[in-house]
Each structure stands twice: as C-alpha cells, then as structure tokens.
Amino acid sequence: MDRRGQAPRGVANTVTMIDDSWYVRDVPLPERVSAGGVVVRIAEGGLLVALVREIDAGEVLQGYVLPKGGVDPHESIEQAALREIDEEAGLTDVTGLGELRVIEHKDHLKKYWAICHYGLYLTAQVESHIKDVEHHFDFGWFPLEAPPEMFWPCERKMLEQERNRVYDLVIARQNPKPRKKFFM
Q: Is the pTM of this model over 0.85?
C-alpha cells in the first residue's frame, strides 16, 4: 500500500458527493453504532489533527476522514474508538479528553444508518503504522484550523464548530491546576 496519498493499484476512485440526503432518515435502514476520534497533537503554531484516506466497498473515498469504525458486541464506545484509531491511523499512545459529539447519517452506500460517536484524544506520537491496510492507505497530520478536503462534510463541520472546545480541553489537560474565577 502506498502511504503517499495515492490509492493502491486496481482500486477505483469514487465520485460519491455527500449532500444533505445522507443526513435524512427517510427510509428504514439497519443501524450501525461506530466510534472513533478527533486525535490532535501539539505542534508549533497550534494543533494538528490526524486524518486518514479510506477504501470502502472497493472504492477510494474522495477526501480524508476521521478514524472510526463499528463497535464490536463486547466493546464499549471508548474501547472501540481506541481500537479504530490504532487500526486506521496507527496511533497507539493517545489520551482521552472526553466525548465531542455523536453524528448520525447514512453510510456512503446508503445501506445502513450510522450512529458515530466521536471522542477527543491527545497524543505526542508523530509517526504511525496503519494496520488496516485493506481499507486505509494514507495518514496525515493537518492543521486543525485548515483541514484538507474531507469526504464527510459533517466531520469537517464538527472540526470547525468544536475547534475552541478542542483547544480548551487540550489546554486544561496541559495545565490541570484549578484556576480561580473572579466575577465582578
């Protein structure tokens, strides 16, 4: 597998464009609970977020995604998120900072209704080794303020809307001393 952003040979590029119809539950679909995360690391100039490129049903999804996947029957949401982050992004040294958001939508083939739990994780790990190379072929660190093209608009929107909260939680983790608040 090529980790330089190129799809593996023999894998088709998908032209699926996600629009508002993916976020409307207009037909009965089986549900699938998934978990993953927004993994950030501190870098000069701000925070970087871990993103991956994905192959689903033999097609390369256009744009990056957050690492996430199905919750196995024996797993908690947290356990599944850590496993998926390890498998898809190769990040193993992560610290959970809390849940960010739950987003629901149809999967990219509109075969099931995905209920995606996103946690926030902090790491100092820079290098990674993707374990699920059958479904993931690229990993990168990108500025939280300026992520690249993303397949799921809802994930990009979450990064934009939760940016300040992400910074607040990372700062609180780095400086855990209780602070007095003064009110006038």
A: yes
